[in-house]
Amino acid sequence: MRIECKVHGFATGRELRQRCDRSLRLALGRLQTAIERVSVTLEDAPDARDAHCRVRARLCVGGDPVLGEARDPDPLTAVDRAADRVRRGIRRRLELSREPRWD
């Protein structure tokens, strides 16, 4: 699983990238064999005083990427919430792909 973190608008970009990477590896660790690539964009919205996090996971089985978004005043909380949403979406997608189809 390859993780790419982009951080915009924060003074401590490198530290946030490292913590973002760690948080995603913890959230998605058990699913890493099903995930090809994860890209994260963390932006500071100065007018809203919130951090906006978008997580996009491309699965090995193909199909559309699984997306998760979250906003929170704390950037790491936004990353954790978005990662949790993506984790649930990946599990849902994998469960649906395992169910027999009666077409």
Architecture overview:
By secondary structure, this protein is an alpha+beta fold. Helix content is 39%, strand content 34%. It contains two helices and four strands; from the N terminus they run βαβββα. β2 (35-45) and β3 (50-59) form a beta hairpin. α1 packs parallel to α2. The mean pLDDT is 88.
In short:
This protein is an alpha+beta fold and 103 residues long.
Write the layout of secondary structure elements.
Blueprint: E1 2-8, H1 13-28, E2 35-45, E3 50-59, E4 66-72, H2 75-98
Parallel strand pairs: 1-2
Antiparallel strand pairs: 2-3, 3-4
Helix pairs in contact: 1-2
Termini separation (Å)?
Answer: 33 Å
Q: Segments where pLDDT lies below 50 for 5+ residues?
A: none
Strand order of the largest sheet: 1-2-3-4
Estimate what percentage of residues fall within beta strands. 25-35%
Overall shape: it is elongated
Q: Helix proportion of residues, in percent?
A: 25-40%
Q: Helix tally?
A: 2
The number of strands is 4
Q: Roughly how many Å is the radius of gyration?
A: 14 Å
Run of helices and strands: EHEEEH
Biggest β-sheet: count, sense, barrel?
Answer: 4 strands, mixed
Average pLDDT: 88
Alpha-beta classification: alpha+beta
List keywords for this structure.
single chain; 103 residues; alpha+beta; four-stranded mixed beta sheet; elongated
